[in-house]
Amino acid sequence: MSIWRYANPAEFMRLTDRLVVPLWAAAAALMAVGLYWSLALTPDDYQQGSTVKILFIHVPAAMLAINTYAVMAVASGVGLIRRHHVSFLVAKAAAPVGAAFTAIALITGAVWGQPMWGTWWVWDARLTAVLIMFFFYLGYMALWAAIEEPEKAADLSGVLCLVGVVFAFLSRYAVNFWATLHQGASLSMAEGQRVDDVFRTPLYIMIAAFYVLFVAILVVRARTEIRARRARSLRLQEARA
Amino acid sequence: MRSPFAALVRRDTRLALRLGGGGAVGIAFFVLAVVLIPLGVGREAATLARIAGGVLWVAALLAALLSLDRLFQADFEDGSLDQLMLAPMPLEQVVLAKTLAHWVTTGLPMTLIAPVLGAMLQLPDAALPWLAIAMAVGTPALSFIGAIGAAITVGVRRGGLLLSILVLPLYIPTLVFGARVVENALLDLSVTGVLGLLGGLTLFAAALAPFAAAAALRINAR
């Protein structure tokens, strides 16, 4: 039994049918524990006050903002190489979720930055890179929406996604390079500056909650895409008959 | 040079240069976009010199973007592209030839005229040669990266807006390194390192684009 068995839409539907409820239950449980722990049980930071609690949402969202694109790139690559339709549909289903997490990361970042840094936005390397990421998601979704024929849309979006992942890395590097001139001291958290233990455990729980939530949404959306495709081919069959 | 490759470069260059081909209009757009900046920002010399590199590169990005539709669109619509796919050379080479022709009719004239515009934006004389070199090294990347976007959207009706959403984010590294060369020249810093990065980006785009664009064209031709 190989994993490629689930490239068959029927097999994928059968597997995910059993997964939907447990995934949502796990996401809800983790989210409930994580939110209560991080918002109610952690102390205020001695410098940041209660504003620090925004980071329990911000950090997991920012992680997913980047990693969703990686999921899409892997799915697109598998789709192009092995010609599996389910892969393309998973990539398609992931894009709006990734865009939403990117938007959440940007907005919560701005809300946190206003009291902490005194400004909603700085042209910092990380912020700018995440903003650019958002446009990569938009372009990918716009391409899917613009092409009527699903087979063509799938393949072309796959090519775009693979080119995009290369240029996302290049942009990240270029933006780092660019920020060194325009801004001396970076305001974002320096690497190696450790988060205190009191905050770390609930943060890990929140990260796990966001990841499970992501998978749960992704599975439901992918199932919807597969059903939509099936409905479309049934309609076409009917029209031909 | 009677190879099909050279013939295709000649054909596309000639088509772009003739009236209605759009080559000259693209350059006029580049000049106009730059001329608008002092009108909006003000005519203070220090401000203009400070932003000149970024302005010229952003204008070059937009001018290259707006001329991308002629790369494959017309040939796709009238069937020439199908004929080119049957030509005695790989489709990747067709893409390379057409992209070179695109650069000859957009990037090259922009490179030649950029120092004039730079002088008008009050860049000091010492920075002007570096501006021209940066444009010469960096603008091919705009054509190559643009070719990928143009090939992906060739079958989309009214794909111009879509193309800009797809391509402009991919242009960001070129913009950053290209404008930085001019900035370093202005500030009397070393430019060779950044120029190397810009050249590497162009070479990378040249290596990647023919394959990605050809793959997209094959999908569109199905």
TrEMBL record, chain A:
Signal peptide: none annotated. Belongs to the CcmC/CycZ/HelC family. GO terms for molecular function: heme binding; heme transmembrane transporter activity. One of its GO terms (cellular component) is plasma membrane. PANTHER family: CYTOCHROME B_B6 PROTEIN-RELATED (PTHR30071:SF1), HEME EXPORTER PROTEIN C (PTHR30071). One of its GO terms (biological process) is cytochrome complex assembly. Pfam families: Cytochrom_C_asm (PF01578). It is a multi-pass membrane protein. This is Heme exporter protein C. The chain crosses the membrane at residues 21-39, 59-81, 93-113, 125-147, 159-181, 201-220.
